[in-house]
């Protein structure tokens, strides 16, 4: 099968350090002076201009990062006042204000004429153009080429610096909107997974349940309970996370229904280590993998086969595998599925992969091992403990 899925210091880095060494006359080398006890006293080294510039650049970058973080809630958000204070420090201004399209100004410092400054801000929001008077300037803030608010700067601040600050605020707002859009997209993907119950499977399941009503009432009752558990888990609207145990309850219900529909065509093996059952993971991270294995590995016309599900601890991580002995697929198509370029049948896999990488980072996600005629194995690796991943 085919799987789809600080520079080191130089060897002579010690040469940067120069250690005092005594000369022939007993004086320390390299311009140091000898102390009363005979030890070498290192002469204080003057800070070079380049080092001063480096320190200033680092503090500016740190301040900019804090400003961007404070603007995540929007230009009128709960931390916007802190962002205004950071901009005031960065620009060394007498006063700085931020305001949204429908919010009042949030001031850091106080300009000489508050009323005149607020009038400038109103003019900017009305005309979407820069406005100034005396030592105060108001500039429009744009996010995604749309007016998002206003920045007011009072004091002896160069016009270019004020202009760059307005651009910086706009870019911070754009990043915040992108992050919010990513969160909305993640929720949409989860809703898509929850809505992906196959009407064909529902019909076949209910037909199988009905076929046992008279011949085997007890089995019919058990299958109805399995159907209820499967639909409850698939359509649940609460919580982003569940446990491995919770996910496997739904998987067992699904497999019981699938066996009732497919009969002897479907064989199942499930082996899960007890220590990973309490591990929290995103809702519907495993069930779509099992459904995919049954649908594309066994359920094909005239098909039959074995679906194996295994899970075990591997140090601080757990590894779960879903495998079928069906027709498999080409590695190129598997790569296209995970890249979102596959057919609609791969929607569940790509949604799970993206959600795992969003929650745990780029190092986690699905790995597909497959080849034509060799079946398919989908591997899922995730941390056993992850901050913020908690079952509500």
From TrEMBL:
Enzyme Commission number(s) from the entry: 2.7.13.3
Gene Ontology CC terms: membrane
UniProt biased composition (Low complexity): 25-41
Catalytic activities: ATP + protein L-histidine = ADP + protein N-phospho-L-histidine
Pfam families given in the database record: HATPase_c, His_kinase
Region (Disordered) location: 1-41
Superkingdom field: Bacteria
Histidine kinase domain: residues covered: 285-386
One GO MF term attached to the UniProt entry: phosphorelay sensor kinase activity
Keywords: Kinase, Transferase, Two-component regulatory system
Gene3D superfamilies according to UniProt: Histidine kinase-like ATPase, C-terminal domain
Record bears the keyword Iron-sulfur: no
EC class (word): transferase
Classification via SMART domains: HATPase_c
Xref: PANTHER family: SENSOR HISTIDINE KINASE YPDA
Record's protein name: histidine kinase
Species annotation: Pseudonocardia kunmingensis
């Amino acid at each position: 099968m085919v799987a789809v899925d600080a520079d080191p210091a130089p060897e002579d880095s010690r040469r940067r350090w120069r250690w005092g060494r005594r000369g022939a006359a007993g004086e320390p080398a390299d311009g140091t002076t000898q102390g009363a006890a005979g030890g070498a006293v290192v002469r204080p080294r003057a800070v070079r201009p380049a080092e001063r510039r480096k320190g200033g650049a680092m503090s500016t970058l740190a301040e900019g990062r804090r400003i961007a973080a404070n603007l995540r809630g929007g230009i009128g958000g709960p931390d916007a006042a802190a962002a205004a204070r950071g901009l005031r420090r960065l620009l060394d201004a007498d006063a700085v204000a931020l305001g949204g399209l429908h919010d009042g100004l949030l001031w850091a410092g106080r300009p000489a004429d508050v009323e005149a400054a607020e009038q400038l801000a109103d003019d900017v929001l009305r005309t979407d153009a820069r406005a100034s008077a005396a030592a105060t300037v108001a500039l429009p803030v744009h996010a995604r080429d749309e007016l998002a608010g206003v920045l007011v700067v009072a004091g002896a601040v160069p016009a270019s610096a004020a202009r760059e600050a307005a651009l910086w605020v706009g870019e911070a707002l754009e990043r915040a909107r992108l992050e919010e859009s990513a969160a909305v997209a993640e929720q949409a993907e989860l809703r898509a997974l929850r809505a992906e119950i196959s009407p064909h499977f529902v019909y076949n399941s209910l037909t199988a349940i009905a076929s046992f009503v008279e011949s085997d009432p007890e089995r019919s009752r058990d299958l109805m309970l399995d159907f209820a558990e499967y639909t409850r888990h698939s359509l649940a609207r609460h919580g982003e996370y569940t446990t491995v145990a919770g996910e496997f309850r739904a998987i067992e219900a699904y497999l019981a229904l699938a066996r009732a529909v497919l009969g002897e065509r479907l064989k199942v093996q499930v082996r899960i280590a007890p220590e990973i059952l309490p591990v929290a993971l995103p809702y519907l991270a495993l069930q779509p993998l099992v459904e995919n294995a049954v649908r594309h590995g066994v359920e094909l016309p005239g098909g039959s086969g074995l679906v194996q599900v295994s899970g075990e601890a591997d140090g601080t991580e757990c590894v779960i595998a879903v495998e079928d002995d069906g027709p498999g697929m080409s590695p190129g198509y598997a790569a296209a599925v995970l890249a979102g370029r596959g057919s609609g049948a791969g929607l569940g896999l790509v949604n799970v992969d993206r959600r795992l990488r969003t929650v745990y980072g780029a190092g986690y996600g699905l790995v597909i091992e497959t080849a034509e005629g060799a079946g398919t194995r989908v591997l899922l690796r995730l941390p056993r403990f992850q901050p913020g991943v908690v079952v509500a």
